[in-house]
Amino acid sequence: MSGSAATLPEAVLLAGPTCAGKTALALELAERFPVEIVSVESAQVYRGMDVGTSKPSAAVLARVPHHLIDICDPAERYSAGRFRRDALELIPAIRARGRVPLLVGGTMLYFRALTRGIAPLPEANAELRVLIDERARRIGWPALHAELAARDPEAAARIRPADGQRIQRALEVLELTGERLSELQRHAEPPPFATAAFALLPSDRAQLYARIDHRFVEMMAEGFLDEVRALKARGDLDPGLPSLRSVGYRQLWAHLEGACGLPEAVAAGQRATRNLAKRQLTWLRSEPSWVGIPGLEEQELVPILRVMSTLTAR
After folding, report:
1. Please, which contacts does 71-76 make with residues 24 or more away whose CB atoms are closer than 8 Å?
2. FRET partner for 84 with CA separation of 20 to 30 A, picked from 10, 45, 77, 136?
3. Tell me, what's the pLDDT at 81?
C-alpha cells in the first residue's frame, strides 16, 4: 500500500502485463462492489483505436462506469502528466459518489506518475521536437540514446534505445532547462492520498506469451488491419505520434507503407507485445509496495477483496 500503513486508501490500483486477466478481474470486482474503473492504458484514450487496444465493449461500458477512454483524437499527445492530473480529479469525485475508484491497466509510466508524482517540467516545444525528430531520422534513435547517456546517464538507463518518445523528451528537457531530467524528477511529489496497489503476476510466462500471440490473431480477425488502414487514410497522422507508436499499430502501419508483408507485420506485432509484457513484469516485480496476485482463483484474490470490502464499508 502506498502511503502510511495506517492510512486507508482512497483508490485501488490493479496493474499487470497485457493478457494477464486484468479486465476480467476488474469486471468481477465491479460485480461485487460499487466500482468505477479508470483506464490506465495509454492507447485507450484515443478515439478510433478500439480493436488494437482491446477497448471495453459498448455493453461493458454501459454496465460499469469507465473513465479515460475515447477522450483524445489520435493526432493529440496524451502524456503521463495529463493522466496524473486527470486521475487526481477523478479519484475524489468517484469517492464522493460513494464508489471505489479502481485504476486498471498496463501503462506503468502512468502508475508511476500517479504514485510517485511528476516534477514540474517545461511544456513541450514543437520547434525543438521537430529538430530532434530530424536528427533521429538522420542518425537513428539509438544514436540519440547514446548522446543522452553521455549527458544524463541515469535517465538513459531507464529508457530503451528505440524509445523515441522518451528519448526526445529527455533531450528536450536538457535543451530547455539545462538540467537533467533525472535530477528534476527527484523533486516529484506523491499524491495527496494513499493507494492500495495490486499486480497480477502470472507465474507461467510461456503460457502468457501464448495468450498474447493468440490474442493478436484474434484482433486481426476482428478487423485490426482495417482499423489501422482507416487511421492511415485520414492523411493527418504519422507513425511518429504517441498514439501510433503503440504495439501492433506501428507494425501494421509499416505493412501498409510497404515495408513488410502482412505475416511479417503480425509476427513483429506479436513479438513487440511479448517484449512489452516482459518489461511490465520486470517493472512490477521491482516495486516492493505492490501486492502480487499470482492468479484469479478465489483464495488468491483475498488481499484485494479485503481492501475493496473495507473501502465499500466506509
Report:
1. 71/45, 71/47, 72/45, 72/46, 72/47, 72/243, 73/46, 73/47, 74/46, 74/47, 74/48, 74/49, 74/231, 74/237, 74/241, 74/243, 74/244, 75/236, 75/237, 75/241, 75/243, 76/46, 76/243
2. 136
3. 85
- Cell 484485494: give the residue: 304
CA 118 to the chain's CA centroid: 16
Question: Residue 235: CB partners within 8 Å, gap ≥ 6?
Answer: none
Domain 11-118+188-313 in this protein, CATH class:
alpha beta
Any idea which residue has 483508490 for its cell?
11
Fold held by 126-187: Histone, subunit A (1.10.20)
Q: What is the dihedral of CA 94, 97, 99, 104, to 10 degrees?
A: -20
Question: Fold identical between 11-118+188-313 and 126-187?
Answer: no
Domain boundaries, the chain: 11-118+188-313, 126-187
Angle at 124 between CA 122 and CA 129, to 5 degrees: 130
For residue range 218-268, list pLDDT tens digits in order. Answer: 999 999 999 999 999 999 999 888 899 999 999 999 999 999 999 999 999
Residue 93 contacts by C-beta under 8 Å, 6 or more apart in sequence? none
Distance CA 253, CA 269 (A): 11
Q: How confident is the model at residue 68 (pLDDT cuts 50, 70, 90)?
A: very high
